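User: Predict the structure for this protein chain, please.
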Amino acid sequence: MIDASANQAHFWQVSRENQTYTELCNALYERELLRLSQLSSEQLLRLPNRLASLPFYIRRAASNILQQRNILELDSQNASWYHKQAANCPARKQQAAPIDAFYRKNAKPGLIVPLYINQLTHEQIVLDSVDEVDSDNQRLHCNEHGWFSLSGTPLELVNADKFLLKPVKSIMTAACCGHQWLNGEKKTPRLLSLRELLLASRLNWQNFAKPLPALLD
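Assistant: Here is the predicted structure, written as structure tokens:
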């Protein structure tokens, strides 16, 4: 005999997950369409390709986010994670020697890394990924933010306001939740880009040196 109550519970769980997936997709579409509407005239030539690929990346991001299990709470209506924000940016506590030791051991293409950005008195931590490692010169290249020494120092003028950090829970929490500070005070969290959300959804919170594989759409 089939247990009707068990079936009802199953249907409720499926429905709830579908609702969360739909909320995530809607929030991501709204966010990305707003961002695309603000492209410069020089960037408009790439707009058709970006629009064509948008459904694929949004579905992948929503699926990955639902699969993610970490210490953060999910706000599906805003496609964001949230967690208590530290009074001060945790990047200030990091030192060059532990950063250097981590990247000497773990630097490789595909590694997801945090970057500290300090523009005047505005502080935040963003996510990027390593796409090249130059062991001879003790440096690595981040896909979006350029070259850094293994100890974290920026090596180009264009990233002079950034610093490569060692991934630890406090740092990655701040990055995933969009925490930011202005004049040493907490400010409203920023919304992560679609690219950052995809990176964040692949974090292995038990071992940041081994990111999770991306789901196939």
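The helical segments are 4-37, 47-67, 96-106, 169-177, 194-200.
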